[in-house]
Amino acid sequence: MAGETILIIEDRRENIVHLANNVLKPQGYRVLTAMDGQRGLQRVLADRPDLIILDLNMPKMDGLEVLAALQQRQVDIPVILTTFYGSEQVAQQALQLGAAAYVVKPFSASEMLTAVDKALAHHVRHSPPPEPEETIPMTRQVERWMRDMNILTRIGKALVAQLDQESVCSRTVEAAIYLTRADHAFLFLLRDGDEAELCLCATRGPRDRRVRFLDQPIESNLASQVARSGRTLVRPQAPDEAALVEIAGQALGPLVAVPLRWQRETFGVLLATRSPGEPPFNETDVEWLCGLADYAAIAVRNARVIQKGTQPEEIPPADQGGIVTWRQELDRLTAQLHAATETIRRLANLLPPRQEGAG
Fold this sequence. Notes:
Helix content is about 45%, strand content about 20%. It is an alpha/beta fold. It has two domains: about 5-135, Response regulator (Rossmann fold, 3-Layer(aba) Sandwich); about 145-350, GAF domain (Beta-Lactamase, 2-Layer Sandwich).
C-alpha cells in the first residue's frame, strides 16, 4: 500500500523525525504528527487518518487512554502501539482496546513497515462522527501511575536477568531516558575493587541512534560527589561539567544524579539531563530514577559475580562445599531482588499519583 495518511502520536521529537523521514515517507505514506495524547486524540477526530502509530508513555493522555477514548467513540482506525519494554499485560490491554499491533522499541524499519502493512491490509474503516472530548477521571490518573510502577518493576526484572555488565549498562541508560523523558543519560561505575576511580561506562543522547560505550575515567565533580555521599542531587541547571558537555555535544540543562547503591555498597552513579530551557525533573522523575538505580546496582553486582565465576582461574573445585556456597550466594541475590521489588511497590502508597503534564 502507498499514499495512506499515518498519524504519529509520540512525545519525543527525534523519534517522530526518524519514523517519519526514515521509515514512512520513503514508502510513500503521508505523515501527520502530535506530541501528546490529548492533541493526538484531537487530530484523530479532526483528520481521520488511515492508521495511527501511538506511543504508550506520554503526557496528558497515555497510549492506553487514547485507545480507550477511541473505543468509546467507536472510531474504527487501526492503531499500532509502541513502547520501550514489552509486556504481555500491556499488550493484552492494548489488543482488548482495539490495537491492531504492538511493537516494542527499539524496532527496525522493516519491523514497523511489516506492522503497518498488516494493519492496513486487514482493516476496514467504519468511523462514526466525532464526539466531544471528555476529561480524564482521577481514577484513570491513579491507574496510569500504577501502570508506570509496573513498567518500572518489569524493567528492573529485565535488568537483573542480564548476565553481562555491558548489557546492564545499555538497558539502564535506555530506561533512564524512557522513564524520566530525559534527553541524555550517563552511567558511571566504580571500578570493581576500586572505590576511587569513577568511569563513564555508557551514555546516550538525542542524536545517538544507540547507547555509546566508553568505559573511561571522566572528570565529573557532581558524579564524584554523589558517589562519595550516596545521596541524590537534583539541579534546575547542570553545573559547568566540561567533560560531560563535550561528550553530549551540547549544553546541559536540568539534571538529576542518583547513586547505584545496595546494602551500603556504592557501585556507581546514574545521571540524567534535559536540554537547556526544558522543565526540571519533578519528584516522580526522581523516584523512578532512584528505583531504577536500585535495580541497576543489583544487576551490576550480579554481572560481576557471574563474570568472576566464569573466569577459569576463579572456578572452585566441583565439590559439595563449593556447590553449597554457590547456592547460598544465589539465594542471597534472589532475596535482594525481592527486597528491591518490595521497595518499589511501597512507592505506590507513599507518593501521590502523577499530575497531568508532570513529565
